[in-house]
Amino acid sequence: MLALTPNIKIIDRLKKINPRMFLAGFKAEYNVSQKELRESAKAVLKRAGTDIIVANDVGKKGRGFGTDTNEVYIVDKKGNVTHLPLASKKDIARKILDYVVDCFCSR
Fold it and tell me: What CATH number corresponds to the domain at position 29?
């Protein structure tokens, strides 16, 4: 029998070290519904105290690993959910960065 030990999640400790930092986390799931993806992101956001979570389903065609495109949901601590539809990873990254800048500047 193989005994596994859970790893410590660094993201869960960062806000405790510096509560004032802006913390963005990422959550990947595999073949889940949009609702399950959003709920999973909200759970990580709450547990880790992040400001936003960017969640994606890497099990869907054209998304995640090994592709040049992605689709994500950005969930913030106010409960807002922003859907970024399938686009190039470069465009998705730019939109995530714009979102972070907007959040950080509105603090």
Answer: 3.40.50.10300
> Is the pTM above the cut of 0.85?
yes
Could you give the number of structural domains in the chain?
A: 1
Mean pLDDT within 7-21: 88
Model confidence at 107, in pLDDT bands (50, 70, 90)? low
Range of the domain at 77: 20-105
Tell me the residue ranges of DSSP E strands in 16-105.
Answer: 24-29, 52-57, 69-76, 81-88
- Nearest in space to 10 (alpha carbons), one of 21, 22, 25: 25
Report whether 29 contacts 55 (CB < 8 A).
Answer: yes
How far apart (Å, rounded) are the C-alpha atoms in residues 58 and 9? 20
